[in-house]
From TrEMBL:
Source organism of the structure: Massilia eurypsychrophila
Name of the protein in its database record: diguanylate cyclase
Reactions mediated catalytically: 2 GTP = 3',3'-c-di-GMP + 2 diphosphate
Enzyme Commission code(s) on record: 2.7.7.65
Family annotation (SUPFAM superfamilies): Nucleotide cyclase (SSF55073)
Biological processes annotated in GO: cell adhesion involved in single-species biofilm formation; negative regulation of bacterial-type flagellum-dependent cell motility
Domain GGDEF: 250-382
Cross-referenced Pfam families: GGDEF
């Protein structure tokens, strides 16, 4: 495939990616990241079309080359910016703008001075630098990154280095290096651009799909209002501790609590105020928990707390501290300060427990706390010992 055909393939490839993205996001509201990436691909498609028509008489070279490369720089810079946006680094815009202005100015100066050599050096180094910036954004959080993200980051970095290598070799060894001539370098560089288009294009779409799927899976086990595990998520966290209870060692405690008279909050102040109260209560409770503890929202205003390696007396002390903290931390509403109390039932996991028997025992303690006047902590053994 000659260079002209490769440039035309790059233009059509970027146009096809724009079409794929259009239908991918057709029925959804586009995020800023995807919008930036879409504009980047449109710029690259327009740039490669301009460069394809250079020397054909359709668009004069003094227009097609400076304008085509300028638009190409914008497209690749925006593609790197979309990667930084996806990495939640939103301060990329101003530095990128100034770098773009500098890059376009340098290229045009090189084009005026030398129409072949210097512009090749400038374009290769500029494009390689922008692609490397995108690879660096993908590499953020490497330890927690998925294999797909790591692959796209490594592939982008290697291909970007190949693009930049052409500029470096033209600058340092104009006649080539051994059997690697300038023509071979040009072919390799064009192939690298083609692979970058395919790898970054479909890789980015796959990463977006992966992120959406991950969010769907997260929402299946996380309560959207309080951002703590829902009933399903809490049971998943509880399962291994039920198994460990069959082995000798420190017990694991379960605390079940419910906000007292919560309906009056919704009736008197509205559901938004009730949502604020729930979020505030969760934050209050988390301040009295260890990193290994787990808080989950079971249903409505009923919450459960898993306290690994905690005996019943210590678990009761934790529940008591939370009860006092909730009572002494009114939530500011639009019309008044909303005070809340909570009732707690505390138990520990036994060797023969199932999820049903464990929660039944904790719930019996909770109901005893509510029957005893609310705003108190009741241990499960006290319930079983009651006449």
């Amino acid at each position: 495939m000659d260079i002209t055909t490769m440039v035309f393939a790059l233009a059509l490839g970027n146009l096809s990616l724009c079409a794929a993205l259009f239908f991918f996001e057709y029925e959804r509201k586009k995020s800023l990241t995807l919008s930036t990436w879409s504009v980047a691909k449109q710029c690259q498609a327009a740039a490669w079309l301009l460069l394809y028509f250079r020397g054909s008489g359709v668009v004069p070279d003094p227009i097609s080359i400076p304008l085509g490369y300028s638009i190409l720089f914008v497209g690749v810079a925006l593609e790197a910016g979309a990667m930084w946006e996806a990495a939640e680094r939103t301060r990329w815009r101003r530095p990128t703008l100034w770098l773009l202005i500098l890059a376009i100015g340098v290229f045009i100066a090189c084009y005026i001075i030398d129409e072949t050599g210097l512009r090749t050096v400038a374009s290769s180094l500029i494009l390689g630098a922008f692609y490397l910036s995108g690879a660096a954004a993908l590499a953020l959080g490497w330890r927690d990154a998925t294999m797909l993200r790591r692959f796209v980051a490594i592939a982008t970095a290697l291909l970007a280095l190949l693009v930049a290598a052409r500029g470096v070799m033209v600058l340092t060894m104009p006649g080539g290096w051994g059997w690697i001539s300038n023509t071979i370098l040009q072919l390799w560089s064009s192939a690298a651009f083609y692979l970058l288009m395919l790898g970054n294009g479909f890789g980015y779409l796959l990463l977006t799909r992966e992120q959406v799927q991950s969010e769907i899976e997260r929402l299946a086990v996380v309560d959207a209002l309080t951002d703590c595990p829902n009933r399903r998520g809490f049971f998943i966290a509880l399962a291994p501790w039920l198994s460990l209870a069959r082995r000798p060692g420190l017990p694991t405690a379960l605390v079940l609590f419910e906000l007292d008279q919560f309906k009056r909050v919704n009736d008197s102040y509205g559901h938004p105020a009730g949502d604020n109260v729930l979020r505030a209560v969760v934050e209050v409770c988390k301040r009295h928990m260890r990193d290994s503890d787990q808080l989950g929202r079971m249903v409505g205003v009923e919450f459960a707390i898993l306290l690994p390696r905690t005996a019943l007396p210590e678990a009761a002390l934790v529940a008591e501290r939370m009860r006092i903290a909730i009572e002494s931390s009114p939530v500011k509403g639009e019309r008044a300060m909303i005070g809340m109390t909570a009732s707690f039932g505390v138990t520990t996991i036994r060797a023969d427990d199932t999820t049903v028997s464990l929660f039944k025992r904790a719930d019996d303690a909770l109901q005893a706390a509510k029957a005893g006047g609310r705003n108190r902590v009741v241990e499960a053994h006290a319930v079983s010992a009651a006449p």
